[in-house]
Design a protein that fits this description.
This protein has 713 residues and is α/β, with parallel strands linked by helices. It contains 28 helices and twelve strands.
Length: 713
C-alpha cells in the first residue's frame, strides 16, 4: 500500500468568500427565527385572551420547537425557489470549476461499493454500468473499482466471487476491478471503508463511495473528479441521489415526491451551507488523505445504544473534515446519481430504527468544541428528524388533555383583550384561523412551489409526462402522506423510547424487493398505532365533535395504519399506476443511458462459471465445481492444514456440510488446502466413503451432459 500523507488544505482562494457566506446564513436563519417567534407570540396572545393555563406554557414550548422545524423546512424550499429564480449562472455551483475541461485526469480515483448480503448479480450489473459509462468518456484508465464485501452468508460469499470473476472476464477488468471480503466485519460499513482506506487508499487521490443500490453516470463521476483536481481545498463532494426503480405504491410515492419537491430543498440547503455541507454516506467523492487522517471515528463512551460505535458515521466524518479546514460541498447540479428505496413502509421503518439510533448518538457531539456553525446545524437537523415525532406526539397529547380539561370543567371562555386584537382588530376566531392558515401554508408551501415551477417550466412538465400527471401525482402523494404521517410519528416515538431504555439495534440486510406486506405482519407491526388510534378516537368523540374533526387526520391515519401499509406495499397497484403514467418520474419516461446499461448488464452471468445451480449452490459449488473451486482457492491466502483442520475436513466429507456449524464451515472455506482436499475427494473417492450430498452434486454434472442437445454430424 502507498502511504497516505495527511496535510492541511493547500492555500488557495476560497471558492466562496467568508463575508458573503456569513450574510447568506444570517439572512436565512434570521428569517426562520423571526417567523417562528412571531407565530409563537401569536399563539401566546391567543392563550392569553382565553385565559392562561399552566399547561399552556408547556404547549407553547413544544409549539416553538415544532413550528421552528416546520419553518426551517419550508424556508429551505422558499430559498431554493429564490435560488432557482436567480438562474444557474448566479447560483453557487462548485462544479462550474470543471466546465469546459476535457484533458485527461491527472490523479487516480477509486470507486468503492461496500456490500452486505446483497444480490451479487445486481451488484455487478451496477458496477458494469458505471464502468461502461466511465469508459465512454475515455477516462477509464484513471479509475479502479472495489467491491468491499462484509457478507456473512457463506453461500452468497461464493456467489459474489463467481459473479466478480465473470464481470472481470467480460470487461477485461482484472487489475482494475477488485473484490475483497473481510473475515470480521468490525464496525459495519464505517469499518469496511476504513479497512479499504488503510489497505489501498494511498494509491488514490479520492474515492467515490457508493451503496449497494447506488448507480452513477460516468460523465458526472468524471466531472466530480475534475472538480477535486481543480480545487485542492475540497474534502468531500456530495451529490443528491434520485430514487429509481420503485415498483410498489410506497416506493413510487417516495421517488415521485423526491424528484418533484427535492430540488427545491436541495437548492435551499446549498443556499446557506455552501462549503460547510454534510456527507450522506454514499454517492459522494471523498479526498483520501484528509479522510484517512481525520475521520477515523472513536467509540463513544458507554454502551449501545447511546455509546459504542457511531452508526451514523457519515455526518460525523463530514463534521471532522470541516473542522480541520477542508470544504464539503453539495453538487446540486449533478443529475446522474441514483439509489433505490425500501419497498414497504415496514422496511422503511426498520431502516429508520438504525438511523434513529445513529442520529441520537450525535447528542454526544453537537456541543463538542471547535465545530463550525454549519456542522452543528446539520447534527441538530439529523437529531430532530427523529425527536420531532415524540415532540409532536407530546403536543397532541397535551392538546387533548387541555380539551378534556376544558370540557370537564364546564367553564365558559371569557375573552380578554390581547396585543393582536389591539394591533390587528381580530376576534378570537379570526386570530385562531389566521394562525392555522399560516401553519398550513408553511406546511404545504414547498409542494405548491414545486408544482407551480414544474407545470410552468415546459422541459420539466414534459419530463413528468404532462401537467395533469404532475397535479394528480402531487395531490395523490399529499393525501397518502397525510395518512402515513401519524403512523410514522408513533413508530418514531417508540423507536426513541426503546433507545432511551437501552435497546440497541442490530445490523440487518436492507430489503430492496418484495411482493408486499402480509396482513398478519401489518397488524402485528402496526398494533400500537391501531389500538392507540381507536382509543384516541373514542376519547375525541367524547370531548366533542369539533375536537374530533380537528384531530380527524391524525386519528384516521392511526386507525388505518395497517391497511394503508399493506395497500402501499403492493407491487401490482404500483405497476397499474405506472401503466397509466401516474407517479412516474423522468427517469422512467426517458431512462438515462446508465440506467439502461444497468438494466441490460449480463457480464456477471456465465453458465460456465456459476455457483447458483440447483444441487450445488454456494458452498457446495465451491467444493464440487472445478471452476468455482479454482476461483475460490485463488482468492485465499496460502496456509497449511493442522491435524484438527484435517479432521474437520474429513468430517465434512463423511457427514456432509450440514453436520458442521457455520463457524466450522467458514474455517474450511478460508483454508485453500482444505478446499482443494475436499474437491479432489468428492471426485475421486468411492461414493460409499463420502456423504450422499457430495455424490448427488457430482452426479448432477452427468445429468446435465445427458440432457444437452447432441452435436451435429
Amino acid at each position: 500500500m502507498d502511504s497516505i500523507h495527511a496535510h492541511a488544505p493547500e492555500p488557495c482562494r476560497p471558492f466562496y468568500g467568508r463575508i458573503r457566506r456569513f450574510l447568506r446564513r444570517l439572512v436565512f436563519f434570521t428569517s426562520v427565527v423571526v417567523v417562528n417567534v412571531a407565530a409563537t407570540f401569536w399563539l401566546w396572545d391567543l392563550f392569553w385572551r382565553m385565559g392562561l393555563h399552566r399547561a399552556h406554557y408547556v404547549l407553547l414550548l413544544v409549539f416553538f420547537v415544532l413550528n421552528g422545524l416546520l419553518v426551517l423546512g419550508s424556508f429551505h424550499a422558499i430559498f431554493g425557489a429564490f435560488d432557482m429564480l436567480l438562474g444557474r449562472k448566479r447560483s453557487v455551483r462548485i462544479t462550474k470549476l470543471a466546465d469546459g475541461l476535457t484533458d485527461p485526469l491527472v490523479k487516480r480515483f477509486a470507486v468503492v461499493m461496500p456490500i452486505y448480503n446483497e444480490d451479487a448479480v445486481k451488484i455487478c450489473a451496477r458496477i458494469e454500468a458505471i464502468h461502461r459509462s466511465i469508459e465512454a468518456t475515455g477516462q477509464i484508465a484513471s479509475f479502479d473499482f472495489f467491491i468491499l464485501s462484509d457478507t456473512r452468508d457463506l453461500d452468497l460469499w461464493v456467489v459474489e466471487e463467481t459473479a466478480w470473476t465473470n464481470l472481470c472476464r467480460r470487461l477485461d477488468g482484472f487489475g482494475r476491478i477488485y473484490y475483497r471480503r473481510r473475515k470480521t466485519n468490525e464496525n459495519r460499513k464505517a469499518g469496511n471503508i476504513g479497512d479499504f482506506v488503510r489497505t489501498w487508499g494511498g494509491g488514490y487521490e479520492g474515492m467515490l463511495v457508493l451503496d449497494a443500490d447506488s448507480l452513477m453516470d460516468g460523465a458526472d463521476i468524471v466531472k466530480m473528479a475534475r472538480v477535486m483536481e481543480a480545487y485542492p481545498r475540497l474534502g468531500i463532494l456530495q451529490t443528491p441521489p434520485r430514487l429509481i426503480r420503485g415498483v410498489s405504491v410506497f416506493t413510487r410515492l417516495q421517488q415521485f415526491a423526491m424528484r418533484l419537491y427535492g430540488p427545491l430543498f436541495i437548492r435551499g440547503l446549498n443556499f446557506w451551507q455552501l462549503d460547510g455541507g454534510s456527507y450522506w454516506g454514499h454517492n459522494a467523492l471523498i479526498r483520501m488523505a484528509p479522510f484517512s487522517e481525520f475521520c477515523e471515528l472513536p467509540a463513544l463512551p458507554g454502551r449501545e445504544p447511546f455509546g459504542g460505535r457511531i452508526l451514523s458515521h457519515d455526518f460525523v466524518e463530514a463534521a471532522l473534515m470541516v473542522r480541520e479546514g477542508w470544504e464539503v460541498w453539495l453538487a446540486w447540479d449533478i443529475e446522474g446519481t441514483y439509489e433505490e428505496a425500501p419497498p414497504t413502509l415496514i422496511d422503511h421503518l426498520k431502516r429508520d430504527r438504525r438511523w434513529c439510533q445513529g442520529n441520537l448518538q450525535h447528542l454526544w457531539l453537537i456541543f463538542a468544541r471547535k465545530l463550525p456553525f454549519s456542522v452543528r446545524v446539520h447534527l441538530f437537523m439529523g437529531i430532530m428528524a427523529y425527536l420531532a415525532s415524540p415532540i409532536w406526539f407530546l403536543f397532541l397529547l397535551q392538546s387533548t388533555w387541555l380539551a378534556w380539561d376544558r370540557r370537564a370543567s364546564g367553564l365558559s371562555s371569557i375573552s380578554v383583550p390581547g396585543y393582536v386584537a389591539k394591533w390587528f382588530k381580530l376576534d378570537d376566531f379570526m386570530q385562531s384561523l389566521t394562525l392555522s392558515v399560516t401553519i398550513m401554508a408553511l406546511l404545504f408551501l414547498p409542494k405548491i412551489l414545486a408544482v407551480i415551477g414544474a407545470v410552468l417550466t415546459p422541459s420539466i412538465r414534459r419530463s413528468f409526462g404532462g401537467g395533469f400527471r404532475i397535479l394528480f401525482g402531487a395531490l395523490f402523494e399529499t393525501v397518502v402522506s397525510m395518512l402515513l404521517a401519524p403512523c410514522v410519528m408513533v413508530a418514531h416515538t417508540l423507536m426513541v423510547a426503546s433507545i432511551v431504555v437501552g435497546k440497541a439495534v442490530g445490523w440487518g440486510t436492507q430489503s430492496r424487493e418484495t411482493d408486499g406486506t402480509a396482513w398478519v405482519d401489518a397488524f402485528r407491526f402496526h398494533a400500537a398505532q391501531t389500538l392507540l388510534g381507536l382509543a384516541w378516537t373514542a376519547l375525541a368523540m367524547k370531548i366533542g365533535l369539533v375536537f374530533a374533526a380537528w384531530m380527524a387526520p391524525i386519528l384516521l391515519g392511526l386507525v388505518l395504519s395497517a391497511p394503508v401499509s399493506v395497500w402501499t406495499s403492493r407491487a401490482r397497484y404500483g405497476r397499474a399506476l405506472a401503466r397509466r403514467g401516474l407517479l412516474s418520474i423522468p427517469e422512467e419516461i426517458n431512462p438515462p443511458e446508465v440506467i439502461r446499461l444497468a438494466d441490460s448488464a449480463t457480464a456477471a452471468v456465465d453458465p460456465a462459471l456459476d455457483a447458483t445451480c440447483e444441487g450445488r449452490h454456494g458452498v457446495m459449488a465451491a467444493v464440487v465445481d472445478p471452476y468455482v473451486n479454482g476461483v475460490h482457492v485463488s482468492l485465499l491466502e496460502p496456509a497449511e492444514l493442522t491435524a484438527a483442520q484435517e479432521a474437520l475436513a474429513e468430517r465434512c466429507l463423511v457427514e456432509g456440510p450440514s453436520a458442521l456449524d457455520k463457524k466450522e464451515l467458514a474455517e474450511l472455506l478460508y483454508l485453500a488446502p482444505a478446499m482443494l482436499r475436499l474437491h479432489r475427494a468428492v471426485w475421486l473417492r468411492p461414493a460409499d466413503t463420502i456423504h450422499a450430498v457430495w455424490t448427488q452434486a457430482v452426479e448432477s454434472y452427468r445429468r446435465r451432459l445427458e440432457g444437452a442437445p447432441s452435436a451435429p454430424n
